Prior knowledge:
This protein is an alpha+beta fold. The longest helix has 14 residues, at 84-97. The chain is built from four helices and four strands. It has a four-stranded antiparallel sheet.
Amino acid sequence: MQQTPAPGESSRIGASDAADSAAALAVIVQTTVGSETEAxxxxxxxxxxxxxxCAQVSQIRSLYRWAGELQDEAEQLVSFKTTRDAAVELxxxxxxxxxxxxxxxxxxxxxxxxxxxxRWLEESTRPGTA
Length: 130
């Protein structure tokens, strides 16, 4: 059994059963897009609809095979921190609004995290909260 930190101690990752439970519900949804403008637009739509608590945009270089040809492209990686429940609708939004013919939309589990962060993530994706 894991112990909860004593008052005044910092919360450790995996320090409580509540963190384990919240982490099981937390996911990262990732997609790549061709421009910073599209990344910002998709992130804004997701945040406005409370489908994600946070979106991070990073410039990356992608090497891949498409239509039988090797590609080497600059792209933007957008990582959305969200919950499993919100991820379903978020993935639908990304697939519907994405400019690519076959967009990357993947969901990755968050297996652990700080109690406060996971609580914030869940609260930020709950409709009707501030």
